[in-house]
Amino acid sequence: MAKVIALCNQKGGVGKTTTAINLATYLALSGKRILLIDIDPQGNATSGLGVNKHDIKHSIYHVLIDDADPRSIMIGTQISNLSLFPSNLNLTGAEVELVSVLGREHKLKKALTGLLNDFDFILIDCPPSLGLLTINALSAANSVLIPIQCEYYALEGLGQLVNTVNLVKENINPALEIEGVLLTMADYRTKLTTEVINEVKKFFSGKVYDTVIPRNIRLAEAPGFGKPIALYDKASIAARKYEDFTNELLGVKKESIADSSLRVAEEVEAASEATREAISNAENEIAEPVAGPPKADETIGLRASSQ
Ligand SMILES: Nc1ncnc2c1ncn2[C@@H]1O[C@H](COP(=O)(O)OP(=O)(O)O)[C@@H](O)[C@H]1O
Ligand SMILES: [Mg+2]
User: Fold this and answer.
1) The pTM is what?
2) For the CA of 12, the nearest atom of ligand 1
3) How do strand 75-76 and strand 3-7 relate by DSSP bridges?
4) In the chain, where does the domain assigned CATH 3.40.50.300 lie?
5) Ligand found nearest the CA of 222
6) What does CATH list as the number for 3-254?
7) CB of 17 closer than 6 A to ligand 1?
8) Ligand 2 geometric centre to CA of 40 (Å)
9) How far apart are CA 8 and CA 130, in angstroms?
């Protein structure tokens, strides 16, 4: 039975889509069956996974408004185990059209009923608003994942978001929980990042993930190539952090701090042993003292000639 998680924050540009794409990818790579639902008319999760949103004939719009069979809009992606409900600008109309529809808050939930056994996780990438599309996501979800950008206005609007979650919980979906809060785009060179992290931890006590996603240019580049970070640059720090975050969300036990310190100590010890050996070998081989370091102009000459 799938766990349904809505990625939600009414602010734009906080990392909802980036987190949706990369969490979905790492979950799929860990063997889970994943459906990612793009319910934002901007269609960034769709294009970020390499699907041309202008070519899509059937999108989540048709499920919400025309009661289309959800399986008819489902498409595969470059990652096996990761399916997508695509979206594009047509969905803009849905926000208005849904207003007059009977059971308008439950359209997505109803559409997903027959799919819950086919997936382990269903992730919903919400638009930057608290309108009917987001309400549909919150109504269909078991939990809400809130990405928060480490910036000056990070906390602004969070009260409103929490109120909306509580209203949905009271009136539409009593089982809805806050899954957790993910801090994104951290830049540890600034004092602000640390301050924001502390403030968010105070506001959402116990709900903030230990993993913090750093600001990283590779993450910003990847959607332009239609690739999750795991395919675009799997060695980047951003890739490692999204993988760590996925493990944290799954509750996969990470190496304890004590274990990892022990491992680091052992590695340092092994490295020093190798260095000591290399130095003693070199000392035995060098009979004559080597020349001193080159003078400044010699160094410049060396640099110039090596270019
Ligand atoms: N950790 C990061 N480092 C650098 N750029 C990022 C990072 N996370 C997201 N971005 C970029 O910031 C922009 C907004 O992110 P996005 O995930 O689309 O936010 P949202 O879905 O909340 O609007 C995008 O251009 C994205 O590529
Ligand atoms: Mg987005």
Assistant:
1) 0.84
2) 23
3) unpaired
4) 3-254
5) 1
6) 3.40.50.300
7) yes
8) 7
9) 9
